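Attaching the record inline, Q. Sequence:
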Amino acid sequence: MAHPVEGVMGVSMEKIREMVDVETIIGDPITAEGVTIIPVSKVSFGFASGGSDLPTQAAEKFAGGSGAGVTVKPVAFIVIKPDGNVSLMELGAKGSPFDGVMDALPGIVEKIKGFMAEKKAAKAEKKAQKDAENTAEGETLSEEKPE
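Structure, as predicted:
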């Protein structure tokens, strides 16, 4: 026989399943003047459940409860134009400064790589010039040496 807490949890999870499905995250398409807009949402939920057997003289009793919370936040719209062009329109600003840093990181890395490559090329060019000067001086010195 199943424990009563399993029943409480089962009912709670079933109710959450009814509220949160794929159609909650990717909404129904809306079409107007040939443009199709599909809403995209972020769904977060939490769930807690618990219970205890309470011994009494007559029989075992069970006391329990559960709770759940769900938030649905629109985050973007997928826009499909009549010419087949598809774009994503995000709502609002970035979630945190960290998100902005993470978005900028690839560009920063590329700039650093470019800077380092330029510096390395400049160093190699300077070395080549110095070697050329030393070679030219060596030829001049050898030409001026009396034999």
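Residues 43 and 72 are 5 Å apart (CA to CA). The chain is about 45% helix and 35% strand.

More tomorrow.
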